[in-house]
Design a protein that fits this description.
By secondary structure, the protein is an all-alpha fold. The protein contains nine helices and no strands. It is 68% helix and 0% strand. The longest helix has 28 residues, at 2-29.
């Protein structure tokens, strides 16, 4: 259990770090140097650790449910520096979940083609499965259109400016909406994760 927990923590930390760095690099490409100037375009996890999201929440979720979840400090960016004012913020937001799906896809390919061969050790296979599950979970969670999750910024990119009052309302009630999501709605979203896992890897978990 201890080893499984340690590996889970390490996988989660690196996955959320890649997620945040993807935000920063996308913003950099689109014209905003804020993340680079803040020293956040690095895979060094120390630069991205959030005491609650990176340590306390993962420990609590693992102990209480056997699963592990968390987040890193959001990479700062200034949407007014982006070349595309219409789509830029949505593109920066999409980069995070997309990076997690790319990680999941990479290790899914390994699992799909080499799981039944003698080329992979059982321990490496188990770690690969863990990586896929955690990254799919991060992608699915962050794509939910509730502020401050990435999905809300992606949604706002498609909503005409005349409906900005909807964005204001969602952002104003973000804490309540996230709590409702975690305690009441997440159980209905969770089944998406094993479904995507099977599509990616070809196996059930």
């Amino acid at each position: 259990m201890e080893i499984n927990f340690i590996f889970s923590i390490l996988v989660l930390l690196m996955s959320v770090v890649v997620h945040e760095v993807a935000h920063g690099y996308t913003a950099e490409i689109l014209g905003d140097p804020t993340a680079r100037l803040a020293g956040r375009l690095t895979l060094n996890p120390v630069k991205h650790l959030d005491m609650i999201g990176s340590i306390i929440v993962p420990i609590v979720t693992f102990i209480t449910g056997g699963v592990i979840f968390g987040w890193a400090k959001p990479v700062p960016f200034n949407p007014y520096n982006l070349k595309s004012q219409r789509w830029g913020e949505g593109m920066v937001a999409l980069a995070g979940p997309l990076s997690n799906l790319c990680i999941a896809l990479f290790f899914s390919i390994i699992i799909r083609f080499f799981a039944n061969s003698n080329l992979l050790s059982q321990s490496f296979l188990e770690i690969s499965i863990l990586i896929v599950i955690i990254n799919i979970t991060l992608a699915v969670f962050n794509l939910i259109p509730i502020s401050p999750l990435d999905g809300s910024k992606i949604l706002f990119s498609f909503i005409p400016y005349r409906f900005d009052y909807i964005r204001s309302w969602i952002e104003r009630h973000s804490l309540i909406l996230v709590l409702i999501l975690l305690f009441f709605l997440w159980q209905f979203i969770v089944p998406i994760i094993p479904w995507l896992f099977k599509i990616f890897t070809g196996i059930r978990f």
